[in-house]
Structure formats: C-alpha cells, structure tokens
Design brief:
Shape of chain A: globular
Oligomer: heterodimer
Number of strands of chain A: 4
Largest sheet of chain B: 4 strands, parallel
Order of helices and strands of chain B: EHEEHEHHEHEEEEEEEHHEHHHEHHH
Shape of chain B: globular
Number of helices of chain A: 24
Number of strands of chain B: 14
Structural class of chain A: mainly alpha
Radius of gyration of chain B: 22 Å
Strand content of chain A: under 5%
Strand order of the largest sheet of chain A: 1-2
Largest sheet of chain A: 2 strands, antiparallel
Largest interface: A-B, 34 and 34 residues
Order of helices and strands of chain A: HHHHHHEHHHHHHHEHHEEHHHHHHHHH
Helix content of chain A: 40-55%
C-alpha cells in the first residue's frame, strides 16, 4: 500500500511539474484571476468556487485532457531513486546496443559530410534565403542534385543490428528444444500471446461493431454505423481525450477523424503554435542543414512515387524541414532509449561548451522517414496543424520504431511478438519459410518500421492508425503482420525462395485490415 | 444457330483485343458478317453518315451511338444544354425552376459560354460587363487539351470577331469554331494543385435511358501549383490537366502520372471537409451526367492508351465490364434485347439511371435495395433519380 501511494505521489509530482511550465497553466491562472469578477465567486469559499467555475466553463476538462496526455506518454517511474537512464531504457545491454548504433549512424553522417565537403550546417546567403521563401509552397519543383547523397541508413541495416542483439545474462544452452525460438530475434523479452492479445484488444472482437467491417455497403447502417457516428459527435462535443481514445478503438468515421485524433493527442491549435511554426520556418530559411538534403532525397524516393501521397510532396518538405529544427522535440529523449547526436563547432572537437545537438531536434532521418507524415496529409491541410499532429505522433509512437529498447511497443518487442505469433500459431508455415531461407521477419520488418505507411491503401492505413491511437500501443502492427502471413499462407507454402515469398507479399494494397485482424485474433483456433 | 460472337475493330489496342479473345469471340474482317464492331471515330462517322452509311442489321452492335458527337463537340453540347433547358421551361417542368436572379436552380452546371465566331458580339457585351475576368478558349472539334488557351483581353481573340479585317479573304465557315467560357479561377485545390475528373459512363440504351457509371474513375492532377495570377495564364501546365499536356512537363512523374482514384478523392474530401458536402458533391456530379445525357446523345473516344501499368489494368477491367453489360453472356446481339442486365454482371459499374426502373411500379423500392458500392470506400446510400426527381436528388 505504501509503495503504491509513494508511486502515485511521485507521478503526481512529476505531472504537476511538467504542467506548471505549460501554456495551459498560464491560461488557467489567467482564467482564475478573471473569475474573481464574477458574483458567484465568494472569498470565504474561494477554492471551491473557482474549482466549480473551471468545471462549468470546460477548463477542468482541458486540464483533465492534459493530465491524461502526460500519463499516456510518460512511463511510470519504477523507483524514486532510479537514475534517468532507466526511464529511457532499464536494460543495460539495450542501452549499450543503442549507443553503438548511434555512433555508427553519426559516423556515417560525418563521413558523408567530409566526402562531399558539405558542412553539417551553414548560414544561407541573403539571396538564397529570398529565393527559398518565394518557393516555400512548391519546394517539390526544385531539383537539386541529390545523386551523391545516400540515406544514412535503411531499415534493413537496422534489422541486422537487432538480429545481433544478445542479452549477456541469458544462456539458453545449445540444445534445441520445442522452446527454441526459430526466428531472427534472440533476446528474451516478454511479449503477449493470443489469449492476452484477445484481452488487450477486446474491442476488436467478433461481437463488437467495427468501422472497417460493419460499415461496408452490405450492412445496413442502422445496425452499427449510424449510432457509432452519433456517439463520435457526442465525444467531440464533450472534448474528452480519454473518451475519444476509447471510442476510436472501434474505428473513427472519416469525417470525424481529424478532430478525434487531435483530441486524443491533446492538440489544440493556439495562436502561439502558429507563431512557433513560423519561427521554425524562419530557421529553415536562414540556415541550410545537411539533413535537409537527406529529407529531399527521401521524399523524392518514397512519397513522390506513391499513388496516394504524391500530391502532398510540398507539404512534406514544409513539415520535415521544420521538424529538424524543432528543439522542443529534444524533450522526448527523456523516455526514448536513443540520445540526440552531438556535434561540435568546427575546430572545437571534444569541448563540451561547443557541443550542439545535430540536427537540432536530435532525429536523423532514414530511408522512408517521410512516410510517417504522408498519411496525415489526408486529414490536415494547413501546414502548421499538420506539423503539430506529426510531431506529437512522432514523440508518442513513431520514435519507438527505430530505437533499440525493451518497451513493449518498441521495434524489438514488435519483431519478437511477430515471430512468436507466427511460430506458435502457424508453425508449419514458419518452418517452411525458414527452410527456404525466407525468414518471415526479413519481409515484415519494413512494414512495421513504417507502421505500414505506403504498403496499405490509405483508408485502411487510417483505420489501423485509429487503433494505434486507441490502444496507445504499436503492438497491433506486429499482429497485423502476422495476420497478413496467415492470410497468404496457402500461397506461401508453395514458394521455394525468398524472392518468391517477397513476391507473394509484395502488394498489400488490396487488403482490408480489420477483417484480417479479427480473424487472426478471434476466429483462429488456438 | 448459337455461335460465337464475331468481332471487328480498327483500333489496335491490347485492352480491347485481350478482352475479345478471352471470351472466345471470333475475329472477322469488316466485310464479313460481324456482330460487334469497336469502331474508331472516323469509321463511326462513315457508318452513320448520310452518304456512305449503311443500316446495321438486328444482330449487330457498335460502340457508339450515331449522334455521339453531340456530346463531344463542345459547341453542340452547349447548344443542346441550352435547348434542353428551354424545352423544360416550356413544359413548365420543375427542373427548369430559376431563382430571383434568373439563375437555374437545378440546371446551372455550365458556365457562361458563347460560340465563336457566331456569338462574338454577345460575348463582347458580356466580357465588357465583367472586365477583369479570365475566359477560356476551346476548339470545338479537338480533344486531349489541344488548342486551348486562356485570355483576359479582347485583343487576344480579335481573329474571331465577325467583322475583323482578317476575314475579308477568308469565308466565315472555314474559320475554326471555338467556344469561349468564363474561366473559373477559384477551383478546388488539393496539395495546391488543380485536378479534373475522368469518369466512365456507359449508355446501353437511349430509349429508355439506361446508363452506368464506372466506380473506378480517377482524377488527374496538374504537376505545377495553381496560381490565378495573370502571369501564369500562359503556363498550360498550371491550368490544364489533360495527361497529354502534363506528360511533357518537367515534373511529370512516369510511375503514377499524377492520378488519384475517385475513392481517394472521396476519402480526402470527407476527412477534410466532412460527410455532407462530399455526398452533396458526388450527388451533383451524377446529376449533371444524367441531365447532360438527357439533353443529348453519347460521347466519342476515351483514350485507350495506357500511360502506366495500373492504368492498363484499369482500362482492361473497364472494357471487360463494359462488354459484360453490352453483350451479356456472350450471346449474339439482338436488337430486341430490352431487359436490364442482372446485378451480377455489372462488375464495377453501378446503375446511374435506368428510366424503365425509374418509371415502373415499385421503382423506389428497387432503387433503394440496389446493391453494390457507390464511389468511395464509404458506401453512401445515395438515391438514384426516381419518379419524383426533386425529392430524391435534392
């Protein structure tokens, strides 16, 4: 009992401290002062009256949403004396692995820099600044010579690192048994099995209505869809983050999705946010960063060639270039196992006073990074709103897909979950694929790292991301990956090479995700 | 005697030929007995022309109605719509109702348009009224964006004035006919770009009117950002979306060719603007199509050239579904055919309008229980035009 209480007070203290420096706090203070004018606020019962006032005017709701947001993002501190690294990542061997991976990336970046004799950052001459400003809305028409740039790394490089992860404290002996894990990931992390997943994803069960299944044209809308939409509108009217999160577990109606996601992530577009975005834009205009070229190249290689997202090419530059310069993103490294790379002012290598984070937001983009932003363009068409939503999605979810950690939503756990599900429930398929040199993870890794963006049809992707937000977890990506293999199992059993297996799974654009997930979780004999 | 359908075509396109062959139909030449002839526009003209034409026999089908050019040629289309509106007005049809400013409430779907050189003076009067407007000039007989340009000064179209000096040695009839319309310079933009819609409509019979809309239409985007500024008037890549024109722009991307499916469009519009306006938009598009068909006859050649792999697949399936409806079960055509095809053969077509169903008893019930998805990932249960046209459409 005591332990729980002290945990709770620790959490409360932490949240209070976080919120005190937020804009919301300033607003609440201002509102409290203003309320003193009102007749119903009496001096003798000041505290109660102001609390009542907040409740009636909806400010309490906003505060609730903010607290809920903090709780969703921040991991619960395990022990008051735990050092900050433990919040990032409790397991030493994982921290070490992440550290050496980061060193490799930075080395790669630096060597590209010196090979091409391009500085990591430089101030733009005034003429260039003016030109960029005038072209701000159509940077896609620019065709800088990007042939010499290569992405710093691609998902398959990262996969190799994960495959080589080992826990030095774990010895499972040389003898093979039915417990031996046949997959590529060889670290003992706890992952859910199907009974646990069924419990976790209970709202996806066969008895519960889903958007993505029960809104198809064959089903009369009176059975589920109409009521679901009505509830959605009510949730939006109540402005309740927690309710919205619960609601989207059954999918979000297309017309309400933009608002619901903003409510769940507690994004309200204030004038200060627009100003902040403008500030970032100014930073982009004034300084050119090497990572900008990497971003250009990535967009040109991926989003520009996508059937759905090519239209939004220019928005992607506007978001990603600003994102690189946003130092507020550094805050998420408190709970990210990764750390922002450091660079030194020229000539001052090793001197801490001359160290800067590079890029300013600490995130080095890799091949396919722009695909995290692209689907959001279907929901938000004002650049600064799009920016806010992407940034929040990144610091809550996407960062976990390319850093090494033991978190249940981290990519390592997702890979292990995928492989375990496959080995446990489709052992024949798994064994067959392994025999022909087509380890399933080699195919599904890229889907999970990109959260399936660019692989699924957009409407299906949005239904999937509804559930990521709804369950505040990325585990659904691993479940979907396994469900896809289950769906194509018959064809996969007949292939005899990795290339052929890749071909069977090359095109996911016709898949309907919700039926696949439902069947895999709730209609497969376990 | 039961036999295989005999086909001819003078268009060498794989999407057509593959479809004929997969049905086991027999290729014959033009001079032999044929049942199905997929004709190029020129051939159609010959077949139906007064001098060189011939009557089709009862077991022959072609892919165009005789008066298809009434919809293709822009001047004829405009004439037909104007005439249709007047006819409805004369009959006191509620469709022809106008508002206080004299604008048609339900039939206002063509911007102010004039024929040149015939209506030159009328045009000038209108032009002077709205001085800073932009107008778009389109040659009547051309397609694929050829010959289109924008103007904002009268001097730019001096050639078409009736008493222009350049016409003293040239007779009126040989001056090329153009239509000029008010240019709408605040179009809906996506990603800052203009786009248009390419929708496929199949008309199987005219009386009664039976038409089908292919669910997999698409939008074509301009490669360059839209700007209404006058300096960009000459830049056709900004204003015209025809693939034939966009293909030559620097930014044209060969993998996707700047297209979106109509369902993507629907998803985007619903997500950013809401359900009601999106449904209204699509209802109105369907309305315009049906009304245009009623005003006239049928259209000429959609491009059967495929620009990308996806495109080829789309067109193959389109022709496949078209043939399934036009020549059901591969039976030899019979002009006495009058049944509506059963729902199973529709494929990716959905009924846009079926006059018989609309006028028969219990029409409303039939239409509401119509299966099949309408455009877009969300099946909107929109109602087709029934007897009581106004209450169901608007």
């Amino acid at each position: 009992m005591l332990q729980e209480e002290s945990d709770l007070s620790l959490i409360i203290a932490h949240i209070v401290q976080k919120l005190k420096s937020s804009n919301l706090y300033a607003q609440l203070e201002r509102q409290a002062w203003i309320s003193l004018q009102r007749p119903e606020i009496k001096l003798e019962s000041l505290k109660e009256d102001i609390k009542e006032f907040f409740k009636i005017t909806g400010w309490e709701k906003k505060l609730q949403n903010a607290v809920y947001s903090e709780l969703s993002v921040f991991p619960l501190p395990s022990h008051p004396a735990a050092p900050p690294e433990h919040l990032k990542e409790p397991l030493v061997y994982m921290r070490k692995a992440q550290g050496s991976w980061e060193k490799r990336i930075l080395k790669s970046l630096n060597s590209m820099c010196s090979e091409l004799s391009i500085p990591l950052a430089r101030k733009r001459p005034v003429g260039e600044q003016k030109e960029l400003l005038s072209k701000w809305n159509e940077m896609g028409t620019d065709e800088p010579d990007l042939s010499l740039f290569r992405p710093v790394y691609a998902p398959k490089d990262f996969l190799e690192v994960l495959i080589n992860l080992r826990n030095p404290n774990y010895e499972n002996g040389d003898s093979l048994s039915f417990r031996t894990h046949l997959g590529l990931i060889q670290v003992p992390l706890k992952v859910k099995d199907i009974p646990e997943l069924k419990e976790f994803f209970v709202e996806l069960s066969l008895n519960t209505g889903q958007l993505g299944i029960d809104d198809s044209t064959q089903v009369p809308p009176e059975l589920f869809e109409n009521e679901h939409v009505r509830i959605g509108q009510k949730v939006l009217a109540e402005e309740d983050s927690a309710a919205a999160q619960q609601y989207v577990r059954q999918g979000s109606p297309t017309a309400l999705r933009a608002e619901l996601w903003a409510l769940i992530l507690n994004i309200s577009s204030q004038p200060e946010d627009a100003l902040y975005y403008e500030q970032l834009k100014t930073n982009v205009i004034q300084h050119d960063l090497l990572v900008d070229s990497l971003i250009y190249k990535d967009v040109k290689l991926t989003a520009s060639n996508d059937d759905y997202y090519f239209v939004f090419e220019d928005y992607l530059y506007q978001v990603l270039l600003c994102f690189s310069r946003d130092t507020s993103v550094l805050g998420h490294f408190a709970y990210n196992s990764a750390s922002p790379p450091k660079s030194y002012i020229r000539g001052k290598l090793g001197l801490e006073e001359y160290a800067v984070f590079y890029p300013p937001n600490g995130v080095i983009p890799f091949h396919g990074f722009s695909m995290y932003v692209a689907p959001l363009c279907f929901l938000y068409h004002e650049p600064f709103k799009l920016y806010q939503m992407f940034r929040e999605m990144y610091v809550r979810f996407f960062f976990r897909l390319h850093s090494i950690s033991s978190h249940p939503s981290g990519i390592v756990s997702l890979c292990l979950l995928f492989e375990t599900l496959l080995q446990t429930y489709l052992p024949q398929l798994f064994y067959h694929l392994r025999e022909i040199g087509a380890q399933p993870l080699r195919i599904s890794f890229k889907w999970m790292v990109r959260a399936f963006s660019g692989y699924l049809a957009t409407d299906q992707l949005l239904l999937l991301w509804d559930r990521i937000l709804g369950y505040n977890s990325l585990e659904i990506l691993a479940v979907l990956a396994a469900a896809v293999f289950a769906f194509r199992a018959v064809n996969l059993m007949e292939v005899t090479s990795l290339a052929a297996a890749e071909a069977v799974l090359a095109d996911l654009s016709t898949l309907k995700v919700m039926p696949l997930l439902q069947i895999f979780l709730f209609a497969t004999v376990t | 005697m039961a036999g295989k359908v005999k086909w001819v075509t003078d268009i060498e396109k794989s999407v057509l030929i593959n479809n004929f062959e997969k049905r086991g139909w027999v290729q014959v030449s033009e001079n032999e007995d044929w049942n199905f002839y997929w004709m190029s526009v020129q051939t159609i003209r010959n077949v139906f022309s007064v001098e060189t034409g011939y009557r089709l026999s009862d077991d022959q089908i072609v892919n165009h109605f005789p008066n298809h050019y009434e919809l293709t040629r822009k001047d004829l289309m405009v004439k037909n719509i104007k005439r249709y509106r007047k006819e409805l007005e004369k009959e006191c049809s509620p469709l022809a109702e106008k508002d206080e400013n004299g604008k048609y409430l339900y039939l206002d779907f063509v911007p102010v348009t004039y024929m040149l050189p015939a209506d030159y003076n009328l045009f000038v009067e209108e032009f002077r009224k709205s001085s800073s407007s932009t107008w778009i000039m389109k040659p009547c007989g051309k397609a694929q964006g050829k010959g289109i340009f924008l103007i904002n000064k009268l001097s730019q179209i001096k050639k078409w004035s009736r008493d222009s000096k350049t016409s003293t040695f040239v007779s009126q009839s040989s001056k090329e006919a153009y239509v000029i319309s008010l240019y709408i310079n605040n179009p809906l933009l996506i990603g800052g770009r203009k786009f248009d819609l390419r929708l496929y409509v199949l008309v199987s019979t005219y009386r009664p009117l039976r038409c089908y809309m292919y669910k997999l239409g698409f939008c074509r985007f301009c490669t360059v950002k839209y700007s209404p500024s006058t300096s960009e008037l000459d830049n056709m890549f900004v204003h015209l979306t025809n693939v034939a024109i966009q293909k030559h722009g620097d930014d044209y991307n060969h993998i996707h060719g700047g297209k979106w499916t109509v369902s993507n469009l629907r998803l985007y519009l619903e997500s950013t603007r809401g359900r009601e306006v999106t449904s209204k938009l699509f209802d109105e598009i369907h309305w315009i199509i049906v009304q245009s068909l009623k005003a006239v006859a049928v259209n000429a050649s959609p491009s059967l050239t495929s620009s990308t792999a996806n495109d080829r697949i789309l067109k193959y399936n389109l022709i496949n579904d078209t043939l399934n409806i036009a020549v059901p079960n591969g039976e030899i055509p019979d002009c006495k055919w009058n049944k509506s095809p059963p729902k199973e053969v529709l494929g990716n077509y959905e009924i846009l309008y079926d006059e018989e169903l609309a006028q028969g008893d219990g029409a409303d019930r039939d239409l509401r229980s119509r299966p099949g998805q309408s455009l877009g990932p969300k099946g909107s249960r929109s109602r087709d035009s029934g007897r009581s046209v106004l209450t169901t459409w608007k």
